[in-house]
Amino acid sequence: xxxxxxxxxxxxxxxxxxxxxxxxxxxxxxxxxxxxxxxxxxxxxxxxxxxxxxxxxxxxxxxxxxxxxxxxxxxxxxxxxxxxxxxxxxxxxxxxxxxxxxxxxxxxxxxxxxxxxxxxxxxxxxxxxxxxxxxxxxxxxxxxxxxxxxxxxxxxxxxxxxxxxxxxxxxxxxxxxxxxxxxxxxxxxxxxxxxxxxxxxxxxxxxxxxxxxxxxxxxxxxxxxxxxxxxxxxxxxxxxxxxxxxxxxxxxxxxxxxxxxxxxxxxxxxxxxxxxxxxxxxxxxxxxxxxxxxxxxxxxxxxxxxxxxxxxxxxxxxxxxxxxxxxxxxxxxxxxxxxxxxxxxxxxxxx
Length: 351
Fold this sequence. Notes:
- By secondary structure, the protein is α/β, with parallel strands linked by helices.
- It has helices at 49-65, 80-93, 105-112, 142-155, 169-184, 219-225, 248-253, 263-266, 271-274, 285-306, 309-312, and strands spanning 36-41, 72-76, 96-100, 121-123, 135-138, 160-165, 188-194, 211-216, 235-236, 258-261, 315-316, 321-324, 329-333, 335-340, 343-346.
- It has two domains: 3-138, Response regulator (Rossmann fold, 3-Layer(aba) Sandwich), CATH 3.40.50.2300; 143-266 and 335-346, Rossmann fold, CATH 3.40.50.2300.
- The chain has eleven helices and 15 strands.
- It has an eight-stranded mixed sheet, with helices on both faces. A four-stranded parallel sheet has the order 7-6-8-9. A three-stranded antiparallel sheet has the order 10-14-15.
- The radius of gyration is 21 Å and the shape is elongated.
């Protein structure tokens, strides 16, 4: 499972169009190529269709807010690992001057294996492949958040970490990412506890000043674990723990936990966030994050089309501050926050 899809498995398709001339499905073949931006998403997938539709909504929200003299055409995939090799050249033949997508890790791997990336292309996931001359990557990596947490805890002069995780595969990946970064920063891993409904395993955690707990768990599991942690020990986590500021009851159960998340959820009234419209329907936090991914994907593709990397980066995005590394990956730095009195509040507000 890809980092952005930790809780997205049974999803229905959702489609959108807007004033920026988006169409939900590309024509079978263009009689005359028309310049456009191609959006390659698994909109026909029973598993990823709804997630893809939400990304499309966010993309079009940004396109309508920062219009280009080009229409956006969606090319619908079912299984991206198989469909992408046909959809990408189809989009190019139809006149695509830039491409956003695919969305899934398998789809990104299939596209990265194609030597014919002929226009600026932004894959919407972080894969293991290296970027080509015109191929770049952008996604919501939970592992990147775990590494950022290690950096924040180290900057707070904490040196000893106890990792508490669950048996879920994503939790194990978060633990591994945090541990790797923590050790690279000179920190010590005191122990790693796999929580299997065994609160006695959380007793007597070392509470010496300078120690901390990294809680590699989603909201549901974190609520079960947190009450058993010594309140004297600082607790850190990723956005997997945060279910938004409308869920105050859950947040009270997680009071004082430090975490990172995107401005879209933590700073909805910030001018740089308010400029983009919210979804028409109420969405759960995971889907809100995907909507924000779509917004910043359009903004990054705009930078790529203008070849404005030096002047426009780092980007003050709705998903975080975005920079570019040497592997053609757009890296996102989320906002540090802490749960206080039932609300997730930024610790380092943006200027």
